[in-house]
Design a protein that fits this description.
Largest sheet: 7 strands, mixed
Bound molecules: adenosine-5'-triphosphate
CATH topology of the largest domain: Rossmann fold
Number of strands: 14
CATH class of the largest domain: Alpha Beta
Helix content: 25-40%
Distance between the termini: 23 Å
CATH superfamily of the largest domain: P-loop containing nucleotide triphosphate hydrolases
Mean pLDDT: 85
Structural class: alpha/beta
Order of helices and strands: EEEHEHEHHHEHEHEEHEEEHEHE
Low-confidence stretches: 308-335
Number of helices: 10
Length: 335
């Protein structure tokens, strides 16, 4: 095993549905570039329709790009499918297993189609479905079906695991169980690429992540790097009789009656200044709350702010110079 090896490499990736450029087609992926190192968990985030699934399907070799390049283990996953498929595990957004089969029958059938499959009882155990082995797929709950999808993706001991919204429909406990399993897989050296709508999931699992909007990556980096692109916030309520104009802050504050909100890139400095002033002036700041931006706040701002959505569809088949903010100083970053 090659530590630091880039097992997924994507550059200028494009995917168009329908007729080619100039006609009625729709370009869902518009020049996406990133790479994932062996053993990393990489999360693709974005609002509905941002292009996550369209991108992941290209990596899984389910379709061929209309532009750009994708390599998994250095191979084209579509044209060199036989070299790539045995080494990857795929959990699609909807598994679509025959509903009349039981869990065990499904697993046996799937194991029969998987090269080097491990005993299926092991994977059912790992996802907590061993006791449901004799239940028909159609009788499983939504969350149990998701877990069956995951179990089948794990059958071939994949080196790279693609998880498309793996915990959608799971309750809080099921979600945490899945996170634990994914972490264990990473510890065993598995590389994971996941899409998710749960920011907590990305925060919990991802070594690095990318936020997509309208077919492009708008920001990428570690969760900490992504949140650091957004200002921190200090909130408090001024006591009666203390006008906001007396505040010493060098950064602008939003004032609504007695409520004050300060947004700053230098949280410690602004907070120190504020607290020293409050002590000097003997002012008690009520409901004082100071915090860095959360991934959720960063996501909501990044995913919804205008810009890329309005960019013309150039259709030039490869450019990734799309204003993407890249936060990758540590070697394995999205590129
Ligand atoms: N087969 C298709 N034909 C035409 N357009 C499609 C097709 N599949 C997806 N699209 C469009 O491509 C865009 C991206 O879809 P995609 O499913 O990749 O987004 P996503 O980020 O995975 O969304 P979600 O979070 O809802 O799963 C959407 O506008 C979608 O309507």
């Amino acid at each position: 095993m090659n530590i630091g090896e880039q097992v997924i490499e994507v550059s200028g990736l494009r995917r168009r549905y329908g007729p080619a450029k100039g006609e009625d087609g729709f370009e869902a992926v518009r020049g996406v570039s990133f790479s994932v190192a062996r053993g990393e968990i990489f999360a693709l985030l974005g609002t509905n329709g941002a292009g996550k699934t369209s991108t992941v399907e290209l990596l899984e070799g389910l379709a061929t790009p209309s532009g750009g390049r994708v390599r998994v283990f250095g191979h084209d996953p579509y044209r060199e499918r036989a070299r790539v498929r045995p080494r990857i595990g795929v959990m699609l957004q909807e598994g679509g297993f025959p509903s009349e089969l039981t869990v065990a029958e499904t697993a046996r059938m799937w194991a029969g189609c998987t090269s080097g499959a491990r005993p299926y009882g092991e994977v059912l155990e790992a996802v907590g479905l061993a006791r449901r082995a004799d239940v028909r797929v159609k009788q499983l709950s939504g969350g149990e079906r998701r877990r069956l999808d995951l179990a089948m993706a794990l059958l071939g001991r994949p080196e790279v695991l693609f998880l498309d919204e793996p915990t959608t429909g799971l309750d809080a406990e099921g979600r945490r169980e899945t996170w634990r399993l994914v972490r264990e897989l990473r510890e065993g050296g598995t590389t994971v690429l996941l899409t998710t709508h749960y920011l907590e999931e990305a925060e919990e699992l991802a070594d690095r992540l990318a936020i997509m909007r309208a077919g492009r990556i708008v920001v990428s980096g570690t969760p900490a790097e992504v949140t650091a692109t957004r200002p921190s916030r200090i909130r408090f309520v001024l006591p009666e009789g203390v006008p906001a104009a007396r505040l010493p802050l060098s950064v602008p504050a939003a004032v609504h009656g007695r409520r004050v909100e300060v947004r700053t890139d230098r949280l410690q400095e602004a907070l120190t200044e504020l607290l020293l002033w409050a002590r000097r002036e003997d002012v008690e700041l009520e409901e004082l709350d100071a915090r860095s931006a959360s991934l959720e706040e960063a996501f909501l701002e990044i995913a919804h702010e205008g810009g890329a959505d309005d960019l013309p569809d150039t259709g030039d088949g490869g450019s990734d110079t799309d204003g993407t903010a890249r936060l990758t100083g540590t070697g394995t970053g999205a590129r």
